[in-house]
Amino acid sequence: MNPALAAVAVDSGDSEARPVAARDALERWLIEGPARIATGPHAGAMAGESVGGRARYAYPEITGYYLQWLAHRAHRHGHTEILALRARDAQRWLKAWISESPLPARVHIDAAVCDWRNDATFAFDLAMVLRGVASAADAGLVVADAFLVGEACEHLRTLIAVDGQFDAARPHAAAALLPTRWSTRRGAFLTKAAAGVLAAARSLAQVPRAVQAAAEATWDASLDALLCHPHAALHPYLYAIEGLLSLPAHPRFDAACEPVARELQTRLAARRCGTLPESLESPGRPRLDIVAHALRAVLLLTAHGVASAPVARAVPALIEAVCANLEDDGGLRFAPDDPPTLRNAWTCMFAEQALDYAACGHAELASIATTPWIV
Asked: How far is Cα 120 from Cα 27, in angstroms, rounded to an integer?
């Protein structure tokens, strides 16, 4: 654990000081740390992971998350020039990325790395990029780039199937076979992608009606999957809950929250020493991104007044799991058993936002929950 963080908690004698100090350390790491590629052809991109301060790959999906996170920071704590600078740099890199053909899901710094994800285009990734650009523009951090928005929408259009919904992925080569994974098939997790497209369409007139209609159909079908056939793996399962929580004004929202909260409560009962299993089917690794996912979901469900949201039992242990694993530099690993020099960007963004929610009073969080800017 970060010695400075421990000192803050001890010196203040305030149990609330530790998570606030952790949140602030994560914020500094995300603004200045090694996950943001600072120089070279990928300057402005977010690396999914870094090892010893060196980026392993530039990640378009996570760069979209970063734009969303910067917008969240601006709305919560005020617009600053450094937030705007980071957003402009991220959008500039995404504009270069979306010009590539075929479109890579991950841009590895070591070009020799073979990654099956680069054999397909993913609706989720495109939706997160589009959502991030729209959110950063709404926050006044950038002017949305028309070329980037147009290309993202055109790629999404190619993923609309005959039933009017988005397919999860489309292979670059017609005969290519993608591995059978949750990310390559439709499922509940696509609520988050669909909600991202719908959020973008509210502020970007450039989003075509056909793409919006596909997002609407995908959100409905994916919510049905969340209620009837939820993912066993917690990562996509929590994405699905975030897709629900992203549309609190939707007519189906209130009726869906109670059963979703009950199922989440059951899954949180399986946590081990503050961490959560990777899947209901096998414990897997105690991933910290899942802990931060779950903390956000519990806090927002509770803010919406959902009676079965398991806040009393879950929140302290989940907060402790984040704080106890914070590294000296203010970053987080993907999992506690990762190499000590590895840092994971999306884990840090999820955790910073979760701790920011946790620092709010009930009335403030209830207000945030109406427009949550979920990363």
From this structure: 32
Measured CA to CA in angstroms, residue 269 lies from 231, 280, 287, 334 at distances of 17, 11, 16, 22
DSSP state of 103: P
Burial class (CB in 10 A: 0-12, 13-18, 19+), 342: middle
Helix (H) or strand (E) holding 54: strand 54-55
**Those residues with Cβ within 8 angstroms of residue 251's Cβ, 6 or more apart along the chain or in another chain:** none
**Alpha-helical segments (H) within 269-361:** 288-303, 311-324, 345-358
- A 10 A CB-CB count for 317 gives 17
Strand order in the sheet with 54-55: 54-55, 49-51, 342-344
Structure tokens at 78: 């005020």
Structure tokens at 353: 């936002």
Structure tokens at 175: 């005969």
Both tokens of 5, joined, read 């963080």
Digit-coded pLDDT (tens) for 75-98: 999 999 999 999 999 999 999 999
Interior CA angle at 28 toward 86 and 125, to 5°?
A: 50
Domains of the chain and any CATH numbers: 1-32+230-375 (1.50.10.10), 45-229 (1.50.10.10)
Angle, helix 345-358 to helix 288-303, in steps of 10 degrees: 30
Give the per-residue pLDDT at 6.
Answer: 36
What Cα–Cα distance (Å) separates residue 173 from each residue in 151, 167, 271?
A: 19, 16, 41
Look at the pTM and tell me if it is higher than 0.90. Answer: yes
d(CA 334, CA 83): 24
Omega prior to 102 cis, within 30 of 0: yes
